[in-house]
Amino acid sequence: MVGLEKINAATIENQLIQEGKLDTNPSKLFKESWVSEIINGSDIAFINALTDNDLLNWTPKAPVFLYHGTEDDYVFPLNSISTAEALSDNGGNDSYVPLEGKDHYTSLIDNYNRTLAKIKE
């Protein structure tokens, strides 16, 4: 269950973006030197942390269903599509399930209902 503090944080973040107080341009959010170190591979500690926390290099023991709104512009559907493909390539029983016309927030009820139905199967 999503806690109220996360919902509030998302609401505050969206409000800051709409008011122009929080830029969404990565070149303005991150220092150029840090981005360069990631691109050229010299920030070894950060790259190792990413590798250690890789979510794709494992095989699920149970079916995984990745429900994702096709109109989500907060977390793009490609994230779920590529995750499903990677887990499937590793031998998992995975499915990407597009929720047509739904965005990051309007997909929540569909996502919840479909997940609950799968759990009850």
Description:
The chain is mostly helical and about 120 residues long. It has two domains: about 55 residues; about 70 residues, no CATH class. Helices cover about 50% and strands about 10% of the residues. It has six helices and two strands, in the order ααααβαβα. Strands 1-2 form a two-stranded parallel sheet. Strand 1, helix 5 and strand 2 form a beta-alpha-beta unit. The chain is flat and about 50 Å long. The mean pLDDT is about 85.
Topology overview:
Elements: H1 4-18, H2 26-29, H3 32-40, H4 44-52, E1 64-69, H5 77-89, E2 94-99, H6 108-120
Parallel strand pairs: 1-2
What structural keywords apply?
121 residues; two-stranded parallel ribbon; 2 strands; 52% helix
Tally of helical runs: 6
Strand content: 5-15%
Lateral arrangement of strands in the main beta sheet: 1-2
The main sheet comes to:
2 strands, parallel
Radius of gyration: 18 Å
- Helix content percent band: 40-55%
Give the averaged pLDDT, no decimals: 85
Quick synopsis:
This protein has 121 residues and is mainly alpha-helical.
